[in-house]
Amino acid sequence: MPKRYYTLTLLVLVVLASGLFFPKLMDTDAPEYAGVAMRMYQTGHWSEIVNRSYGTGQPFDYLEKPHMLYWSALPGYVLFGVHDYAYRLLSVLLTLVAAFAVSRVGTMLYHKRAGLIAAFMFVSAQAIILANHDVRTDSLLTSFCILAVWQLLAYVTRKKSRYLLLAGLFLACAIATKGMIAALVCGGVMFFYLAGKRDWSTLFSWKWLWLLVSCLVFLSPVLYFYYTQFDLHPEKLVNGRHGVSGVRYLLWSQSFDRFSGTGDFTGESPEFIFFFHTLLWALLPWSILCYGNLVQRLAALCKTRGRSFFDKEQLSFTGVWVLFVLMSLSKVKLPHYINVLFPLLCVGIAGYLYRLHEEGKSRVLKRYTLVQWVLTGLLIVAGLVLNVWAFPVQQYWIMISLALLTLAAVTHYRMARPDALDKVWMPSAITVLLLNFLLNTHFYPRIDQYQGGSAMAERIRQKGYEPSDIYLYGYVCRSFDFYMAKWSPVLDNPAILQKEHEGKEVLLFVDQQNLDRLSTTFRYTVLETLPDFHITALDLSFLNPATRAASCGKVYLVKVLP
Fold first, then answer.
1. Which of 448, 505, 518, 533 is the most exposed place for a label (fewest CB within 10 A)?
2. Same domain, 280 and 415
3. Which helix (H) or strand (E) holds 61?
4. Any idea what DSSP says for residue 553?
């Protein structure tokens, strides 16, 4: 790696490390999945996926996300115990490995320098940084898919079967993370790549059977565990139905029912352009460059009447954008669903900029440099709004660390004497990384104080309340579960009366609605009161210090009186 990228590499590591340790897991998905993995670790039943219901807290067979997400948390739990950084550990490490895979794919398609730029773009994309502290399936899916594509591209280039075996391993891990969407992504981009090269002999080679066999072998444990947990027990009530097949769910329903909006994935579909405007913030600060590359490639197709399809690589263009459009047709859409395409989108952006540089198109590069500086300025303004107006920085070590990192990055950047290519992207990468360092160490920890579940669990530890005396009433709070490192039982009114009859002390964690319900039957005293806000749905009323208190609900720890 060239020396001019050393400081940027350090910034990437610092930002990922700060995201590993400082923010809390944010309700609802991340602490829920971490809690399922926690049960696996505590019971030793790592082959069965068991969750518990929101209302009663009763355990049930959970057919939603496959095994890999939960298994990924187990090494961290074994090494460090049940902590958020333990849950995130493998995701962060795999992201770094994925960045290396991005660099290799970029190198094989374009040039070593384009590969390095693509890798830095990938790890500094806003959604990727966010996904590594708010860990869900898409972080692992993204990493495993680009690793599989890397090995498939290596096979196509070098024709050695061992690459197919490794691709099968990574593809199996990706399917075990989120179903057959992984096969669609990896197979789709490779199809268009080979079609663009007119490499029909490779496209229709029987050797792809090695990939299929390898994938099935590595996937077989998940298929077996799904079979024994669900298919062998048609009497189980799963997702409101009897006779549900876990194997079919993994190989079909998880992805294709989601696309069609049938089965367990019903509801109103966001508009077709949902992912197109999601990309504007999720791929920051590279979204304008991404659309610039798209427009240029489409213009080339029109100008050459389609001939450019065979003149340029299609792995990071046609394959990716066809999948993007297919995802946009899906009946179920969430912003993080497109993360899996980001590695190849970054390869396409880096390759585009590298071609402009090699072809001497300095005027185009200067225009993009200006655009990126405007984006950089907007990011700085956003950072000031969040960390000066909404939640002013008060810890000196954060300000000193940020100042030192900024000084080191700017000094090293100027000393490296960047050329026209580096001037386009490096200032943006430095800015977004510094901003996320501030978000990870200050902004997220500050808003975490308004997440009632995790905040109350921390208060309970600080005050020394006995965890075995604490119960839930009326609902399950996922962040409370995880940060208590146990599934606290949910009590109804008869259960509370039984505890009182046994002479046991009953402390209840409740929200305002359930506290009102409790007050109709029992007397209580409030031990702790904390604000509560759904911090993944930030709005202006919460960010505004003057209206923040009014926008928050409350959670309580109460003691039931005899």
1. 505
2. no
3. strand 59-61
4. E
